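Tutorial handout. Part one gives the primary structure; part two gives the three-dimensional structure as tokens.
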Amino acid sequence: MSEEEKIEEQSTEDKPKPQENVDETISQKPPIEVKEPQTENMEVHHPHHITHKKKWGEYLLEFFMLFLAVFLGFLAENFREHQVEKERGREYVKSFREDLCKDTTILRLNIETLKRISIAGDSLIKILQRL
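Part two.
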């Protein structure tokens, strides 16, 4: 078979089927069963209407819940800030200790250098006095 014939066969296969075949395939599928919604037993919360008056107990409960939420948020933020401050303090103490050790080492080296210079200076003074 030549390539042209293969291309022609593929193009005829890709063409849409006549309407008769489509109707037959649709009629062969089983019908879809529609079930009744099962919302009969569900509880539905309706929002309060503008004309609905709340009791004092409802106001107190809402106030208590809001107060508790804000207070617990404040406590959580305060606790977190305290932890951050404690960690920052530890880092400062560690840095201060490292700086103190470096400064002590530098001072010891400077003291030794000054002692050598003073000994050399004393010997230079003695040599100059002999002259």
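Part three, for discussion. The chain has three helices and no strands. The CA atoms of residues 84 and 103 lie 28 Å apart.
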